[in-house]
Amino acid sequence: MPSPRPVQRSAGQQPDGPLHGVLEPIVTGAGFELDELDVRVIGRRHTIKLVVDSDSGVGLDDIAHVSRAASEELDKHEHLIGGSYTLEVTSPGVDRPLTSPRHWRRAHLRLVAVRTRDGGTLTGRVGTAGEESVELLVAGVKRPLRYADVEHAAVEVEFNHPPAAELALLQGTTPEGSQ
User: Fold this and answer.
1) Strand 85-90's sheet: what is its strand order?
2) Which pairing describes strands 85-90 and 141-146: parallel, antiparallel, or unpaired?
3) Average pLDDT per consecutive 10 residues, the chain (179 residues; last block may be shorter)
4) For the whole prediction, is pTM greater than 0.70?
5) Distance between CA 126 and CA 107 in Å, rounded?
6) What is the C-alpha to C-alpha distance for residues 124 and 136, in angstroms, rounded to an integer?
7) 164 neighbors 178 (Cβ within 8 angstroms)
8) Amino acid 121: pLDDT
9) pLDDT at 57
């Protein structure tokens, strides 16, 4: 059996591919960003995966709406696919790397693990994210981190509520119960 062969892959890029041109207006028209378009081919079968995102998040009803609209549009452009297809519409998982300022903004107040280009590692809570850098709370101290200095960063899964004192420091408020 042949292995999956990527036809078109777009992670945060805007390729000139015809499917991207057909699907991106559907996604943006629904109020989301097309974070990734991945088309894989196994024999004559295609899997088209759309990863959609927004600053306010993506719910299951949103996924269903985008899926229906994208499916209808793909049916109108079946000549671009050249065979049967499976459409997958999803939102980014928690394991998605933080690669752009918008990813950092969406991770506001979340705990992240960072590997820097100089080989260092740190874990901190995300504060204000700008275009060139992000503010991280590391061991109770706010520190700026330039995106250019980040080799890899991802959100850490937390099973407990974040400490109120950390959230207060990042939001510029006083934690409940303190004077």
Assistant:
1) 5-11, 33-42, 45-53, 85-90
2) unpaired
3) 36 59 94 91 87 88 95 89 88 86 91 96 95 95 96 93 89 63
4) no
5) 7
6) 6
7) no
8) 96
9) 82
Domain 101-171 listed as CATH 2.30.30.100: yes
Give the integer Cα–Cα distance in Å for 88 and 154: 23
Name the E strands within the chain.
Answer: 5-11, 33-42, 45-53, 85-90, 111-116, 121-129, 133-138, 141-146, 150-155
d(CA 165, CA 174): 8
- The domain locations on the chain are 5-90, 101-171
Q: What is the greatest pairwise CA distance in the chain?
A: 67
**CATH topology match: 5-90 vs 101-171:** no
Name the CATH code of domain 5-90 (choices 3.90.550.10, 3.40.50.460, 3.30.1330.60, 3.30.300.70): 3.30.300.70
